[in-house]
Amino acid sequence: MAKRIIGIGLMGLGVIAGQVARVVRDRAEALEQQVGCPLVLKKIKVLPQDLGRPLAKELDSKLLTTDAEEFFAEPGIDIVVEAIGGEKPAYEYLRRALSAGKYVVTSNKEVIAKHGAELRTLAKERKVDLRYEASVGGGIPIISPLRFDLVANRINGIYAIINGTTNYILTCMAKEGADFASTLKKAQELGYAEANPRDDIEGIDATYKLAILSSLAFQMEVLPGDIHSEGISRLHARDFRYAQELGFAIKLLAIAKQDDKWAEVRVHPVFIPEDSLLAKVDGVYNAILVEGDLVGKVLFYGQGAGPYPTSSAVIADVVAAANDILRGAGSWVRWEPRKDKVLKPMSEVITRYYLRMNVADQPGVLAQISKILGDNQISISSLIQKDADAQAQTAEIVIMTHPAREAAMQTALKDMANLPVVREISNFIRVEA
Amino acid sequence: MAKRIIGIGLMGLGVIAGQVARVVRDRAEALEQQVGCPLVLKKIKVLPQDLGRPLAKELDSKLLTTDAEEFFAEPGIDIVVEAIGGEKPAYEYLRRALSAGKYVVTSNKEVIAKHGAELRTLAKERKVDLRYEASVGGGIPIISPLRFDLVANRINGIYAIINGTTNYILTCMAKEGADFASTLKKAQELGYAEANPRDDIEGIDATYKLAILSSLAFQMEVLPGDIHSEGISRLHARDFRYAQELGFAIKLLAIAKQDDKWAEVRVHPVFIPEDSLLAKVDGVYNAILVEGDLVGKVLFYGQGAGPYPTSSAVIADVVAAANDILRGAGSWVRWEPRKDKVLKPMSEVITRYYLRMNVADQPGVLAQISKILGDNQISISSLIQKDADAQAQTAEIVIMTHPAREAAMQTALKDMANLPVVREISNFIRVEA
Fold it and tell me: Does the beta-carbon distance from B301 to A301 stay under 8 Å?
């Protein structure tokens, strides 16, 4: 209890970092009550363009520096809060902060997803803590539950809607029957999708977050590149119509499962039953369903992005780190990743499937398709044929299968695509029950 | 890091305590990895009848004692885990454990609800921690989020389904159109309701839990007796039919709100919009919706009871306490309850209302009823009249009001009941939007 204040060094002054600075400044009294001593901003590392922001002008100019050397030379910093985003230079900054024995709080999903194992090990060595609640799910507590609250459990599965942009687009497509391109455009106009939306709509952002969650939940190093990932751009309004007809919603789900042998990690669009709780998670909201062997199913829901919710998570981490520092508590990083667990290859994954295809409208087509599925040990659970196009002499067929192995399905898809009567395999979506 | 083991003293050997003992025994290796040293059961305080349990025979008999003095004399106990339940003698045991400088983990909602302020103060004085995650929502993390993860927020509201028995009954009544008595009987047969179901169905259990949540969220002492509480036994199958017709679900909700002037705490059945997330929480599941000024709405969902989920919460608390002990971290109880906030009297509460009444089937009845409502500044939002009973010459009227003050509604209810044309005010349910 020697210290009288806790000094904070903030990296960044963008929307997230700016809101963090405001909370530290505007709620000083309430935070002091929680920590037991004042939290004080000692230095803020900014970019030259940040100096023009209104907040930069409100703050004491001596706090601001564009020079990383000056930032790291500030002696009064106990906790480094990084909210720059992106891999570089944030990764180097975090290494440097931990190496210098600083507690670190970050909202940076990319750095934690790619370098979490190394940074956790570094924090452990230096007897400090590395906290990153804001890196997944905005203000929704999910890192803390996995690190602390669910620690008695073996985590069997995680099913997460963790990208607000795609969930907003999918919700609109489902409710309005609109197509992907026009819905993306609308999301961009409303600020829910970026000008370059690739990271969100192709599932890359979700793989970062799933890498973080599954590494923690399974205590093994899962990298973004380990995760099979597909985005939502290939979804059509017709798929949503069929989903509704069949009693499903379509969501971009980040899935992690483990059994005694394998860990399975993937991000892709799925059909989920329309009466499941995850199916009700609409718009930019996020939800993470965790299955533990003791706790059963627990779900965490809230706004997955935005400066206010994200600052809620960052400040909670700062308060926790400050308490640990004041109590002289050192590190509570339990990171001894297991080496025995193997990632399941995608070819071994077993799910049900939804298939939509365009076929010649003539006798015997179904027999040929069923034969290929049967030859690959895939059985049909239900089938819809409609929308025959008299002029083109084609029809649309939708098939729901029973559980089948991905490798078998890929072979069947290839064989069916080669059938002269099959004009097009229009879509192919996995089903999670 | 002087200690080599963390000793646990367990109070109770019922279903919850027994499961806790099993987890400590059967997951020793995984828990040691989380804590950094072994967790060891040093003594178990049992009742004479517990000695006949299968688990008691599996355990080393020297661990078991029916004598509280012997339990407290055991020198190797670092953490006292209490899972006896009920106010007495648990309350005395917890005081005694904290006074002796032990860390305390409890699942006891009644003791924490009634004596939480005193016990938190005691823990703070003795520089130990008092943890009670399992006291609300079974395995759902909700105490940790309020204590730690949402600490940057001003909590504006809590809306919680925190009693599995009543939620199971309400779900059955909604889905099957059954009446209360037969549904309660079924719940008892299935083990979802106790032989004496009063604490659950009359909302008493929920007031304990709401007292705990609101005390934490508002940092003020809220006692169970401060909470306006109504149960579900007065709900009829007809109310569910009307609710569905009007687009609502009926739930027993524990509600806590605060504004600059008042804190408002109440437990009673409510109409909530059928498309809200809480309306989808079915069966024995629990959900707690928290509204923070930064984080917005976050929801925590899961199994609110049962030995497995509850043990998940208890063990998480034990691991956290063990880590604090090993790190020499002392207490992190920030409990300086504010004295300035006043509880809102129920008469000042403002909600919308659903009214169902049985009236004489004759001209002018509606005029008399509307006049009374109007005289009390209550305006009608919608009205259904149906089910005229030709023989009895009565009709049923259902009224949904706009927001009105409780005091005004109570006056109006009395005045309407005195009208000769009103045979009965059949029910009266508040609406939460």
Answer: yes
Domains of chain A, residue spans: 6-139+307-326, 143-303, 349-431
Q: In A, residues 128-157, which contact B (CB 8 Å cutoff)? A: 133, 138-141, 144-145, 148-154
Over residues A64-122, the pLDDT tens digits come to 999 999 999 999 999 999 999 999 999 999 999 999 999 999 999 999 999 999 999 99
Q: How confident is the model at residue B1 (pLDDT cuts 50, 70, 90)?
A: very low
User: How much is the mean pLDDT over chain B?
Assistant: 94
Q: Can you give the pTM of this predicted structure? A: 0.96
What mean pLDDT, rounded, does chain A reach?
94
**Equal CATH topology for A143-303 and A349-431:** no
Question: Which of B31, B298, B301 has its CB closest to that of A139?
Answer: B298
User: Which A residues, 249 through 308, put their C-beta within 8 Å of a C-beta on chain B?
Assistant: 277, 280, 292-303, 308
Strand partners, A159: A255, A289
CATH class entry, domain A143-303: alpha beta
Q: What is the ipTM of this complex?
A: 0.95
Contact yes or no for A336 and B133 at CB 8 A: no
Q: How far is CA A250 from the centre of its chain?
A: 17
CB atoms within 10 A of CB B376: 19
User: Which class in CATH covers the domain with range A349-431?
Assistant: alpha beta
Fold of B6-139+307-326: Rossmann fold (3.40.50)
| Nearest chain B CA: its distance from A396 CA (Å) | 33
Whole-angstrom distance, CA of residue B337 vs CA of residue B80: 25
Would you call B295 and A277 a contact, using CB atoms and an 8 Å cutoff? no
Instruction: Spell out the SS3 assignment of chain A.
Output: CCCCCEEEEEECCCHHHHHHHHHHHHCHHHHHHHHCCCEEEEEEECCHHHHHCHHHHHCCHHHEECCHHHHHHCCCCCEEEECCCCCCCHHHHHHHHHHCCCEEEECCHHHHHHHHHHHHHHHHHCCCCEECHHHCCCCCCCHHHHHHHCCCCCEEEEEEECCHHHHHHHHHHHHHCCCHHHHHHHHHHCCCCCCCCHHHHCCHHHHHHHHHHHHHHHCCCCCHHHCEECCCCCCCHHHHHHHHHHCEEEEEEEEEEECCCEEEEEEEEEEEECCCCHHHCCCCEEEEEEEECCCEEEEEEEECCCHHHHHHHHHHHHHHHHHHHHCCCCCCCCCCCCCCCEECCHHHCEEEEEEEEEEECCCCHHHHHHHHHHHCCCCEEEEEEEEEECCCCEEEEEEEECCEEHHHHHHHHHHHHCCCCEEEEEEEEEECC
- Chain B segment 23-82 residues within 8 A of A by beta carbon are 23, 27, 30-31, 33-34, 36
Residues of A in contact with B36 (CB under 8 A): 334
Inter-chain CB proximity B299 and A295 less than 8 Å: no
Residues 358-387 of B with CB under 8 A from A: none
Contacts of B23 in chain A (CB under 8 A): 152, 294
CA distance B306 to chain A (A): 9
Q: Decide if A149 and B299 are in contact by the 8 Å CB cutoff.
A: no
